[in-house]
Design brief:
The protein has 124 residues and is an all-alpha fold. It has helices at 3-28, 32-43, 52-71, 76-90, 99-121.
C-alpha cells in the first residue's frame, strides 16, 4: 500500500472514532420531549391519604425517577425544574398527609408541576 493513501486514512479513522464517542454521549442523554413526557408522568403523582406509608414510598420512588431524568437532559431549565419537583416529592412526609395540611402540600406541588410543564413547553 502506498504511503499517501495511508496518510489519508489516518484522519478519517480519527474522525470516525470521535464520531463514535459523540454518539455514545448522545445515547446517554434523552431529548427534551422524551424527558418531559416521562417527567410529567412521574410528577403527576397524587398522594393516597388512606395509605400514608405506601404514599411516602411512592413519592420517594418518583423523586428518584425525576432525578435520573434530570441527569439525562442537557436542557438546564428542565434540569432545574426536574430537581425542584424531585425535592418536592422527596420531602413528602406524614405531616403532609394529614387532611388539614395536605391541601397546602398539594398546592405547592401543583405550582412546582406547572413550572416543570412551562419549562418543557418553553412557555415561561
Amino acid at each position: 500500500m502506498n504511503v499517501l493513501p495511508r496518510l489519508f486514512l489516518l484522519p478519517l479513522l480519527a474522525l470516525a472514532l470521535s464520531g463514535c464517542d459523540a454518539l455514545n454521549t448522545a445515547s446517554e442523554t434523552l431529548d427534551k420531549a422524551e424527558v418531559c413526557t416521562q417527567a410529567l408522568q412521574a410528577a403527576g403523582f397524587e398522594p393516597d391519604l388512606s395509605n400514608p406509608d405506601q404514599t411516602i414510598a411512592d413519592a420517594k420512588q418518583r423523586s428518584e425517577e425525576l432525578r435520573d431524568l434530570a441527569n439525562k437532559t442537557t436542557d438546564a431549565e428542565v434540569k432545574q425544574e426536574l430537581n425542584e419537583m424531585a425535592d418536592k416529592l422527596g420531602q413528602l412526609g406524614p405531616e403532609d398527609l394529614d387532611p388539614a395540611t395536605s391541601v397546602a402540600w398539594a398546592q405547592d406541588k401543583l405550582e412546582t408541576y406547572n413550572q416543570l410543564q412551562a419549562a418543557c413547553t418553553g412557555s415561561n
